[in-house]
Amino acid sequence: MATKKSLRATYVMLLAYLCSCTSGIFAQTSYFSSHQGVDPVIAALDSMSNSLFTRDKFFVSDAQVVKSILLTPDQVPHYTDAQITEKMKQIPAEFPLTYNSAVKPFLETFAYKRRGLMSRCLANAQVYFPLFEEILDKHGLPLELKYLPVIESAFNPIAVSRAGATGLWQLMYTTGQMYGVHADTYVDERRDPRKATEAAAAYLKDLYKMYGDWALVLAAYNSGPGNVNKAIVRAGGIKNFWAIMHYLPAETRNYVPSFIAALYVLHYHKDFKILPQTPRYDLYAIDTVMFRGKVTLKHIASVLGIGEDELQFINPSLKRGIVPYVESGFPLNLPVKCVASFIANEKTILNDTSIYYADTEAIIAASAPKVIYYKVRKNETITQIASKHGVAVASIKKWNGLRSTKLYHGQKLKIYLPQTNPAIINNTYAQAFAPRILEKDTTLLPDIHTELEHNEPAEEEQTTENASETEAETVSTEQKPRCVLHVVQPGDTLWSISQRYQGVTVEKIKADNSHISSRPIRVGDVLKIFL
Q1: How many domains does the chain have?
Q2: pLDDT tier, 282 (very low <50, low <70, confident <90, very high otherwise)
Q3: Catalytic, out of 94, 133, 144, 152
Q4: Is 380 inside a domain boundary?
Q5: pLDDT, tens digit (0-9, with 9 covering 90-100), for 19-35
Q6: What is the tens place of the pLDDT at every residue in 417-475?
Q7: 267 and 285 fall within a common domain
Q8: Which of 11, 105, 296, 433 reaches 20 to 30 Å from 467, CA-CA?
Q9: Closest Cα partner for 405 from 386, 430, 422?
Q10: Cβ distance 251 to 223 under 8 Å?
């Protein structure tokens, strides 16, 4: 009988845990109602951790782990401020670890209210920390900075903030470009763990040269050097985070305290009876092949007999589930156990007839801007907002019907965020991306051709305010010739392509497609054919 009760209790705990994962990790609404400063940081972490890359199928949780997560605050050891202060001194860290009233609520939240989140972070740490430590050490940076992605993304490599910061280290597009991280329609290297960590380390190193204080470095990493510099001036020139924190944006005021709290709880997780979940190590036993072809991950997964989501997991930089054609070869990550099968079936893998439909969907998605509603902060200028979101001041004025650049605190602005920055679209698609929606051309081969219709951009994300508004101008399609996109296939030549379309010549194709005017066409090239 005792055994049955034990099994029943374990089952109840497992069921409770799985149910909690469907709506975020142990959300505590009442707690946040009395701790408004904590809410945005922890809520964001909950959202990012409960994503495709941290669902249960990528972790193994035994009954003991589940039991540790479900412990209530009164079942977990508590420590006095003096004890925590003393234990914090024992952590080998170059970063100045301070325990005070700003850090305390975060520490209590992580230790007692977000135990599931911390358990998953401990699992992800087993995967990412060796990589982070290797790169941080190479750059001569404090190894404790490896905890920064806990606060930035909850170890979610595809996390994207409302401002467009992306990846484990939440790099903005312009910052990534400054530090050699490439992004285009199909690939965003900010989502690549190694390349993003290299870029983040270089950026952190440069910030330290500027401030010489790691707390200020993290503040600048979060809100930008401009906000930190202004806060220093307002504080009378004092270069100390705790002295200037009240002059910083609210999110940044919480950023450094939350980093210290997460570092402490993860370092001393045993003190709080938090057990790490176990990552499925077979997912991370990977090898890389240089693949020259354009195929979907779905097709590769089907040929190899593995899950598409697992293949996407180990190739997080692929934004649309498509391996792009790269002349020198694209570095495709595969489970070690599948490499031999991949090589043996390479011809079958290259023959992916679904790629043309996937290409169409990618172009549609890339041409449709994402709409957000941004709340203006105190003393924030329209120039700062435009720079933060990578758009023009004139565009913000147009989208919001503004006659001047003056803004007021709390004002809501509608901003169109381009899914793909025109500056980084590869040459193949440079001419094809416009504010258009693609529709199938049923008069031509449906697996190769698509017809362009000039239309309004689709809004992917809106608040309830002004949801029906649109700023795009409609252009009549009768004023423009019909344009068809032709995807170059193996064996295609400019002459053979010209023969498929009435009135089209080789010279006209080259004139309409500057990216192939001085080189031979390649498999995967997209050509505009005007009829």
Answers
A1: 3
A2: low
A3: 152
A4: no
A5: 333 223 222 222 222 33
A6: 765 433 333 333 323 322 222 233 322 223 333 333 333 333 333 333 333 333 333 33
A7: no
A8: 433
A9: 386
A10: yes
